[in-house]
Amino acid sequence: MKQLSAIKQGEKMVLVLKKSIEKKSKTSSKDIQGWIGGSYSKSIHFAEQLVATGYLTTDRAKPQGFLPTDKAKQLFWVAL
Question: In angstroms, what CA-CA distances link 76 with 5, 21, 22, 41, 45?
């Protein structure tokens, strides 16, 4: 069952990164919550994990905004 959980997490990551790249502007925690479901705090935690691994950057403003990094864009063959 743990493998299925890892796959679901991977699917969420792909979805968030793809939508963030398509958005072309800052992505909010509310956006992420709408895309992956769950609670607002879980969406913030998920986004912070993507920041920690270098796929998103944050402005640390209130409300917090997120942008995809070059590392994220390379996954989708987006021109840098």
Answer: 23, 9, 11, 27, 23
CB atoms within 10 A of CB 56: 24
Q: What is the pLDDT of residues 20-44, one digit of tens each?
A: 999 989 999 999 999 999 999 999 9
Q: How many CA atoms lie within 13 A of 42 on its CB side?
A: 9
Separation of alpha carbons 78 and 70, rounded Å: 9
Q: What is the C-alpha to C-alpha distance for residues 68 and 17, in angstroms, rounded to an integer?
A: 7
pTM passes above 0.85: yes
